[in-house]
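Think of the structure tokens as a kind of shorthand, similar to the way a musician reads notation: each symbol stands for something richer, in this case the local conformation of the backbone. In the example below we present two proteins back to back. Begin with the first one, reading the sequence and then the tokens, and try to describe in your own words what changes along the chain.
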Amino acid sequence: MAFRLRTAQGKLKIEHSILDDLRPVLERLVAREDIRSIIPGVIRQVRDAKGSVVKIRVTVPTQNGWKAIGLCNGARQELFISTVMTQPELEAALGAAIAAEE
């Protein structure tokens, strides 16, 4: 188990800080085999992300996956997800990772 956790940690690139309630969702997501890596981007304060309820919206395709926006704790954070999944597959995986928290 420790090896798998270490592997998952390596797939979550931490170049910026990560929103507190978003981190456990991302850690569950990188444990999947079909996610190559997740790179969290900049955090900006917003009014439409009140509370600790995590929402992640897939926005645009990138060269090696998808860009998404994570909303929680009164802020938004860009997420760059490297995967071969289609947008519907990724949205389903994100929904499952968020639901696992509840």
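Once you have a description of the first chain, move to the second and do the same.
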Amino acid sequence: MSKNKDLAVVAVSGGMDSCVTAAIANQNYKLAFAHINYRQRTEKRELRAFNEIADFFNVKERLVIDYTHLSKIGGSSLTDKDIEVTKADLSNKEIPTSYVPFRNANILSACVSWAEVLKAKAVFIGAVHEDSSGYPDCRPEFFSAF
């Protein structure tokens, strides 16, 4: 990796989308990784994967943020054990129970704030509209508006 590369902040959950996004960002940027814990059911496993991916890409700049307010707000089966997690159904037109209200905006806001401090030139987030199960904050319109 060239030391002359500009820096990019990458939101990394630890899943496949963010791993692929990190690989894409790594082609042209030096990486800084941000991870958000919001008391999601998979929090420990995601954090472990985040660190494993950061180790793989030799990322030194790492930021883990606790957004516990997302679980306090509620409304998602990912943060509320009293709400049943529904199976993914890509043909369903309804927003699934696993949607965390406005999560990606919260993640992007944190990444942009950190990017300003680091003087990063780009921010990356891995969100795929086609397999998002209807999440409003994975739609192209959301990212255009953001």
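Compare your description with these statements about the second chain. The helical segments are 16-26, 43-56, 69-73, 103-118, 140-145.
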